[in-house]
Design goal:
Radius of gyration: 19 Å
Structural class: mainly alpha
Strand content: under 5%
Number of domains: 1
Largest sheet: none
Number of helices: 6
Length: 202
């Protein structure tokens, strides 16, 4: 199996798993930052992620306020995605590569979620400056709830100038450095251990 068909199958695996992993990750982050679940977006995330999480929570207790059932579900889903893509490419699972890739890709997804939400927050604030701190619609309230725990410490390093919040700059810089020093090397190591050809990124 080669060419467009192979690419289409890999895309379908990434797309289907990626959407659900994103939903579970968003719910998990909302729980960690103690965001409000009393809005339509949060309720949608609860509805679509409850089927696997409810039974898992009966056997996997939380730990220090962390929903370990969500953590396990994220790890399993990400690992399954990697395994399926590998099998499509004719590559059997490699435990060491699988573990590293699973953890690295989930961390990368977390970074991207925060980066995208911060960009969304900035763009919406250009249209409606008073919405920068939420309180105007459920969607923006979630964005503020998720990004404020990241931006608040950065704001202490780079205080607002003439009313302009420059904290996103510090966050973008820090995330960029972390990706270069940690995430990209981990993913490259995982690909190598899993047996992917050099330079190949499924």
């Amino acid at each position: 199996m080669k060419g467009p068909l192979l690419q289409a199958i890999i895309f379908a695996v990434h797309f289907s798993f990626g959407l659900y992993i994103l939903a579970v990750m968003l719910r998990f982050i909302m729980q960690v930052v103690r965001a409000s679940f009393y809005n339509p977006i949060a309720q949608f995330l609860v509805t679509v992620t409850n089927p696997p999480l409810k039974p898992l929570r009966r056997i996997i207790p939380g730990l220090g306020g962390i929903d370990m059932a969500s953590v396990l579900l994220l790890l399993v889903l990400q690992a399954l995605e990697i395994i399926l893509v590998g099998l499509v490419l004719g590559m059997p699972p490699n435990p060491a590569g699988l573990i590293i890739l699973t953890i690295a890709k989930l961390i990368k997804l977390t970074f991207y979620i925060f980066l995208v939400l911060i960009v969304v927050r900035i763009i919406i604030s250009w249209v409606s400056p008073q919405s920068y701190y939420g309180g105007h619609n459920p969607g923006m309230d979630i964005v503020v709830s998720l990004t404020e725990p990241i931006l608040r410490p950065a704001r202490k390093l780079i205080p607002p100038i003439s009313g302009l919040d420059l904290s996103p700059i510090a966050v973008f810089f820090a995330f960029g450095i972390l990706q270069i020093l940690i995430i990209y090397p981990l993913i490259a190591l995982g690909h190598t251990l899993y047996g992917y050809p050099p330079g190949f990124a499924p």
